[in-house]
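Section 3.1: Structural characterization of target chains.
Under the original work plan, the team committed to producing a structural model for every single-chain target entering the pipeline before any wet-lab resources were allocated. The record below documents one such target. The sequence was received from the expression subgroup and is listed exactly as submitted; it comprises 544 residues.
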Amino acid sequence: MIFAGHSPWAVKALLCSWLALCAVPGSAQARPKAKAKASRPAAAAAKRAPSPVRAAGAVASAGRAGADAGVQEDAQEPAGAPAAPERAPAVAQTADLSADLRAILQSAHGKSAPYVALVVETASGKVVLERDPTKVVYPASVAKLFTTAAAVKALDLDKKPSTEVRLVGKGAEAELHVVGSGDPTLSLADWTKLAVAVQQRGVQKLRRLVMDASVFDDKLPKGFEEKQTDAAYRAPVGGLMVDASTLSVSVRPGAVGQPPLVTVSPDAGAAVVVVNQAITVAGRGNSLAIVTRPAGRATEVVVQGQLPVKTKAVGSGRRRVADASFFAGWVFKRLLEKQGIVIPGDPQFAKAAAGELVARHQHHDWRAIVAVTNKQSHNGYAEALFKQVGLATAGAPSTADKAAEGVRKTLDGLDIHWEGVKLGNGSGLYHANQVTARAVVDLLRAMGRDPKGGEFRRSLAVGGVDGTLRGRLKGADTQGKVMAKTGTLDDVSGLAGYAESGDKAYVFAFFFNGLKSGPGPLRAVQDRMLRRLLAPTPGVQSDR
């Protein structure tokens, strides 16, 4: 049995499934999609795994819920809820385009240090504006341009990653072997379909369940440990995944004086340990706190504080898990058991053997995954693509080092000034990556000339139209005319891409590091420069 998607609507379908997973991020009334295991005080459960020495992160509904205070990574800005556009001062326009751009850039003085910029004409490479174009800066999610450009060149974009379920042996010796391909889009619904297919094959009991996630290693991407948050935007990736390696928690009041009821979704058996230290109270004081943290390969869900008895269910939003493949293996075991299939023992993580193909899941192609990666700035998809490039160039298991080398090797034929460039991870999270404005502009110009450049450009957010730029650049001179990648951390704001209108065509890169008061004022500066760049006639260009 093969489950497959259809390519004409692939990007739209993948975006819709991603937004559904992210629905109601962080809502106090968020409810889990499916019931899983409920837990009362888990003193006994807590003994099953040692208490970790550090707290981990929360998966913010593919990027928003429970995010670390102050961290506003642009992967956490779904296009489904456009932000109000920044109100910026009018753009004074003279006959000297370069002077006007310099004046706008200098209006950011004191708001960021350092800040760099490079704007060139696409065809000729003539410099229109430059400020420290070779200075090394942190790119935030603009680093995804390197990851996705390499993916576009190294991967077959029409190919759909495949997850296979094989039956090995017969009768009392029957085993189920699952072979992962590093598909980051696999959802609980997809795994449920695979479990149903196994039941329909007539399987009633298995000697063991073998999960083969060997295409990737299971280490966190470099830099992800810089902040110990349980946010979804720093979820791990693995050869097998479910719901972008995230879970959700729902807490309902119990009897007064008793612990509340805690429900984790999806049900992941022993891969999730609930430590319920909360209590139901008669008063109004709601001090409930929910956090996830690693407990070896398992994920510990700690619930603390007080929950008023009259409170409705309190949801956590999406939270990251400790180990992607371990979590997926236990989720599949529980789904098989719900189909009445007996599986003694824990899932085993090893290489799969050849056997009868029982089911295969194929849905979204790499083209759709690349598009969501750039338009929505999806960190998990970016890290999966990063390791896919490593897999394509250096074989399994793909690691962060193989991936970084693979990206460089794939892009080495392009005319890029690599001096100062460091690719620590595929998403740009935190400070594992370094670039120069020169290298980013080189990459964009080279991909514009590349045979696969059209695929790359179409994956970018479009100003005033979609993705992380949906709420920006809505003026008549810029809407639909800027294709770019945003980059945002609490101390970084970046934007790089293409700006085109009529006979004007430019490639640009803007980076502001060392932010002290958030990215808003710097985004306004970036948008003013682009409005001036594409302004059709002299005069005053207002923020329309």
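The chain has a mean pLDDT of 85.
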